[in-house]
Amino acid sequence: MHLSLTSLPHKLHRLLGIERRRAGRDGAVELGQRRIFILPTRYGLLFGLLTFVMLIGATNYNNSAGFLLSFLLIGTALVSMLHAYRNMLRLSFRAGRAGAVFRGETALFGVALDNGRGPERLGIGLQLAGQPPVFTDVPAGGHVAVELPLPAARRGWLPIGTLTVFTRYPLGLFRAWSLLRLDARCLVYPAPAPRLEAPARRPGAGTRRDRRPGSDDFMGLRAYHRGDSPRHVDWKAAARRRTLMTKVFCDPLGEALWLDWNDHPAHDTETRLGLLCRGVLWAEEHGYDYGLRLPGTLIETGRGEEHRHRCLKALALHEAPT
Amino acid sequence: MKHPLSPDALPLDRRAVDLLMLSTGLTLLPHLPHLPLFIPLFCAVFALWRWMAAHYAWALPGTPARTALTLTALGGIALVFGTVFGRDAGTGLLTLMLGLKLLETRNYRDAVVVLFLDYFLGIAVVLYSQSIPTLVYLVLVLVVITAALIELNQPARGHAPLRAMLRRAGVLMLQAVPLALLLFVLFPRIPGPLWGLPQGGGTGGLDDSMSPGSITHLSRSDAVAFRVDFDGAVPPPAHLLYWRGPVLWHTDGRNWTADRDRTVSPPAAGPGFTPLDAATLEYTVTLEPHGRNWLYALDLPLSVPPGAHRTRDLFLAADKPVRQLTRYTVASSPHYRTAALGAAERARALQLPAANPAARALGAQWRAQAADDAAVVERALDYFREEPFHYTLEPPPLPGDAVDEFLFRTRRGFCEHYSAAFTLLMRAAGIPARVVTGYQGGELNPLGDYLIVRQRDAHAWSEVWLEGRGWVRVDPTSAVAPQRIEQGIDSVLPTAQRGLLRDFEGGALDALWQHSRLAWDTLNARWNQWVLAYGPENQAAVLARLGLRSWATTALAVLAGIALLLAALGVVLLSRRWNRIDPALRHYQRFCAKLARRGLVRAPAEGPAAFGARAQGQWPERRAAIASINELYIAIRYGSHYSADRIKQLRRAVAAFRP
Questions:
Q1: Where are the domains of chain B?
Q2: Looking at the partner chain, which of B116, B127, B146 has a beta carbon nearest the beta carbon of A61?
Q3: Is residue B478 a contact partner of residue B485, using CB atoms and an 8 Å limit?
Q4: ipTM of the complex
């Protein structure tokens, strides 16, 4: 049985042309009566078969007590449908802020479930497309926040996508669900390159003066040029790579550091962004003032958490796919 | 099959495993008496293994081991029962499967299957007993199973107390009761059985043969044979309460047997007797299953309930053996004259074995001395009356010629001894005679206004055929122990052999005991009448009364009823409880409403303290009352003083407040 009931809702929605609702102006979505769908689970179907067999048995033995108890179970199953529905009704959802992550990390979307004045909700499942569900309870008249992990596979804005909220409470025989499109997105920075790579020396580049290689902080390696001090040649790397590499040092007391798109002409876009990203992290960590120069974007030098975010955001959204 | 993103693969925690064990244990408990010992033993080992795995990280068996266990179990069932179908083998098989499933239970899906099996096996208990205590127990078991199911479906929850889970399950099932009752009454019943001949369904009670001691044996049983509701409050006098069962024709001098053909084949035409007057007794019998096909009715049944017929021996027989509680209404005519005796029947009624020469000689002697048949009958009854015969539940054994031994040596016997001896004597005197078995008397339950007939009321009497009168009932036991007939079997039994715990003769405790015993029997009688005996026939009558005459309208009524009940429950669940707000807030709002009527309206953002101050300013003379309401409300709602007591205080204060 490959057509599992889990995938059925999506197909059904498409079939019925039901548009997934967007969040209201305040970003909260309340589950109204017409947004909640309910269908038996496969356990519900199995339960139906089970009670049918019970009724056949009761008929065969003309057993009134058997009928009575079978009907009690059938009635309980029907009542549980109402409870599953009630468990969802008028529960409201609001997406919170998702902190930025680097590509390859997992974004955590905060979702707040608000009960209003409703009764206790139990076993509410929240599931993002392709992710395992996260379960939570909501106390009576209270609210609760959950974090939904979503892997960040690409830089740029990562939308939360369609959120399926569902419950199988109380008996697992029925599944009530609703599909929500909340207003939430997460900024995904480029994945930082594994190592810092010093800018290639470009003769005549006017910006070179801004970065004066000093001798205090190791900044990275670059290809050896004639005239580099033999003291700065990375001999171990030379042994490994069979080419000479020069260690570049920076002076923290020196002037501001410029991270430039054109520093790494040999690489493709993503690698360049990764290198610049690593540069931003390095500079921030080592207390440099730094600026960022991208085609069409210029961020003046600065330092600090906010500045770092501005730079990384610019990198994240540079010719962003979305 | 296993979807990694599906919650079905959620592993079970210890608590869930414990709940599964509890549900399964409680389910299997009532099955223990009728399961072969190896099955519960297997299950216990499997359950213990699973429990150790949950609590002490024991390894669970792999697929080859489980396959081997399954095959062994199946083989065991087939070996013990000879089949894997039918009630007993089916129950055994399901029990073993449940044990095996328990052993391989790892995740949500497995656990649900275990609980479903629990539901099924739990309900299967009714195939063995449908008594009220069994049903009460089973409903409790269903609540426990449902609680376990609820536990599985709230995966976020930590360990909610078991009591809370049980309460949730109980509420759920309580809400289902109206639906269950609706379905019970209206859901179309089809007459069973659908396959094979169901096993079980009662044994015990009268047989269609009799030998010395066979009815004595029944007299030790307190079990109910049937209950009778009479039309008209007063039951007939005791000497009319002869509940007719199988008629025995053939004897070898010790044992009496029925003519099997005659019990099943209906008479050629007509009732076989004519009522002498218009007097009839109308009553409804609720017969406990006894596994034979006869139905008990008073001498002699005028009407025949559906699905039954009147045999040539004038007792009622159902078309099928009575394997479930059966309820039927009969009208009997107490005064009657039976039709003429055919030659073949006369020969059968005079059949005499070679045994018991002394008794036969006595019969022949009476014949020679008496003027007519009636005089012989009188002579015989006088004989029992005047000679030192004793009515006893502990008759001595009768070796050899049983009747001779009884008549001339032991002279101690129970009803079967007297009727057998009397009938033999009559035949020896040339009077056609036969033995009738059944029940005599019964206990009136004044609480329910019905008669309880128990196994110990089993009785045997005789019928003789007299010219001009037809078959006439003669009860030789009444000659020896008249109080047996007039006051019932209890009057002649020694104290120890009467009903259980009846030694408290006469005291208040005895009265209490009698009362509760009768109350309990009334409850059982109503249960039998309204629930257990509700089958296709009764349902047809109920549906007709409701005006549901076709399947289509009935189906429509069932669906409409379900929809209506669900809608009603939905309204209650989704609206009333929805708006259930804090009682403290409700009382405070009433307080605000009272002030608003006097013109002081609380502003939307005004806190209770500010509003209270404003109210105190407007009504200085009510300052104290307003302050106390405010304090209470603030303490309850914002402080840590939430208690039912304080809420009551607040309610009273608000109610008493008059601005």
A1: 7-155, 209-339, 344-435+460-497, 583-656
A2: B127
A3: yes
A4: 0.77
Packing angle of the helix pair B63-81, B38-56 (nearest 10 deg): 160
% chain B with pLDDT above 70? 89
Total count of residues recorded for chain A: 322
The whole-angstrom separation of Cα B508 and Cα B486 is 26
Position A60, amino acid: N
Q: pLDDT of B619-649, one tens digit each?
A: 888 888 888 888 888 877 666 555 667 778 8
Q: Which residues of chain A lie closer than 8 angstroms to B181, CB-CB?
A: 71
**Residue B641 bears catalytic tag:** no
Task: Read off the pLDDT of residues A215-227 as tens digits, 9 standing for 90 and up.
Answer: 456 667 777 766 6
Predicted model pTM: 0.73
Q: Which of A73-87, A108-122, B517-531 holds the top average pLDDT?
A: A73-87
Q: Return the higher-pLDDT residue of B488 and A214.
A: B488
Q: Confirm if B487 and B477 have CB atoms less than 8 A apart.
A: no
CA-based nearest residue in chain B for residue A69: B123
Does residue B445 surpass a pLDDT of 60?
yes
Handedness of CA A225, A230, A234, A238 (dihedral sign): positive
Beta strands in B487-609 (DSSP E): none
Looking at residue A13, its pLDDT comes to: 56
- CB proximity under 8 Å: A 42-71 to B: 43, 46-47, 50, 53-54, 56-57, 59-71
Question: Residue B46 is which amino acid?
Answer: F
Q: For residue A87, give the nearest of B174, B566, B164, B574 by alpha carbon.
A: B574
Question: B130 and A69: CB-CB below 8 Å?
Answer: no
Confidence of residue B181 (pLDDT cuts 50, 70, 90): very high
CB atoms within 10 A of CB B27: 27
- Is residue B205 within 8 Å of B292, Cβ to Cβ? yes
Question: Which residue do the tokens 């004066």 mark?
Answer: A212
- What pLDDT was estimated at residue B639? 60
B9-23 pLDDT per residue, tens: 777 778 888 889 999
Shortest distance between the Cα of A201 and any Cα of chain B, in A, equals 51
pLDDT the model gives residue B578 = 47
Do the beta carbons of residue A175 and residue A167 sit within 8 Å? yes
Run of H or E residues at A56: helix A42-60
Active-site entry in B459, B490, B521, B592: B459
Task: Tell the residue number behind the tokens 């009504």, with chain if given.
Answer: B619
Q: Which residues contact A41 (CB under 8 A, 6 or more apart)?
A: A5, A168, A172, A173, A174, A175
3-state secondary structure B163-212: HHHHHHHHHHHHHHHHHHHHHHHHCCCCCCCCCCCCCCCCCCCCCCEECC
Helices B162-186 and B551-571 pack at an angle, to 10 degrees, of 150
Indicate the residue type of B531.
V
**What's the whole-number average pLDDT of chain A?**
80
Q: pLDDT per residue over B188-203, tens digit each?
A: 888 766 776 555 545 5
- Does A117 score more than 80 pLDDT? no
Q: What are phi and psi of B63, to 5 degrees?
A: -60, -45
Which bin fits A161, alpha (ψ -120 to 50), beta or left (φ > 0)? Answer: left
pLDDT exceeds 90 at position B114:
yes
Tell me the sheet residues that pair with B309.
B317
Spatial separation of the C-alpha atoms in residues A207 and A293, rounded to whole Å: 11
Burial of A184 (C-beta count, 10 Å sphere; 0-12/13-18/19+)? buried
What class, spelled out in words, does domain B344-435+460-497 have in CATH? alpha beta
| Residue B409: DSSP 8-state | I
Per-domain residue ranges of chain A: 8-189, 206-317
Q: Give the residue from A176, A168, A23, A177 showing the smallest Cα distance to A93.
A: A23
Active site residue B592: no
